[in-house]
Protein: SET domain-containing protein
Organism: Rhizoclosmatium globosum
Amino acid sequence: MTSLLGPFPIQVFSDQQSGRYAVASKDIPAGSLVLRGKAFGIATTHTCRKECCSACFNAYTLTSSLPFSCPTCSSVYYCSQSCLQSHSPLHTQYECPRFKELNSIPSSTSAFDKLLASIDKTLESDPRTVSLGAGTTNDLSSLMESCYDRNDIMSMARWILNFCIRVEIECEFGPRPEDDVPSHKDYLELVPNDECLSPAERIQFHGLYHLFAGIKKEKGNMRKPFSQLFQEVFPSVQEFVTVINIRQCNGFGLWDGEAECMGNAVYPAASFFNHSCEKNLERELGMRRVGGDDSGADVGVIVESLDSLQLEESIGSEEERKKREIWKALDLQVGNVLYAKRDIKKGEWLTHSYVDGDLEREIRRKGLKDVYYFDCRCEKCERGE
Ligand SMILES: [Zn+2]
Ligand SMILES: [Zn+2]
Ligand SMILES: [Zn+2]
């Protein structure tokens, strides 16, 4: 996995006490690029899909929705014709038929509640639920219903679909030759903190597993249906729990610059950095909020830059061409770019922050404990600030 770090000034060590951590391999002046990481598992939320491009992940301030979309599944929107075109080999074959199946998750409140109630029933009769010590069946009777609304489930489904497709593409075309492109294996090497899950969370994941594995097949889909792909990638609940937990502990919110989280992504290379409430790395907002008064100008710039990415004249076999198109579509996805916030000395730990470092000490620490399951021992916390 350390090959992901390629030319960047980073060395990774691990020891009993600190686990894995990254240090500067040389003096890094303030403002220098420290990492440009690529995603494995990236998706916009269901709610933000119409204002965030599914190819390049730029976010737009709009009164309605982005100008281009897929009329077949209505699940992806694009900022430009060029994004639509570049993404289409990936979308048409891999995403679109599965999105159509995911759309069968009912949108009327009563039908959706009925679905969750049926999952709750399944959980109650699942022997694993009892063995997890979840208390009485009464506690369980509305477990799924109380935790998830349709938007949550759809957002989770979008991300899971992206993850499964990445695995599928890897199986089909083999790993990519470029060092900096993470693989399924790189993802699974990240820390899941499985042991920190509460019994209730564990059961909810069981519920989500039942739900996704039971998505209805759409007749006439040429491609492997979602439920089958899902169960091939996650043969049992445990594989699913691990992947979701890794996302929980290593995921980056795709913030749009207006404090709205438009989606989620995991950048395996960026997970080498530990947390500190006074980080020395600054993340460049990969996702730009474009639009408002000067939207016209900004969209123009993006179209131009994406046009320069158009495929070269196709050469090689059909299979080769297809592979290059798919990889190209994946390369449009926004990266995780980290810069040195101040001068960093060789050997110093490289850190970024999972929470807003300006928050009060106790609020920061509670957030870190609740979401990432650890007690922060950074210098700022140790000083009591
Ligand atoms: Zn775009
Ligand atoms: Zn579609
Ligand atoms: Zn701290």
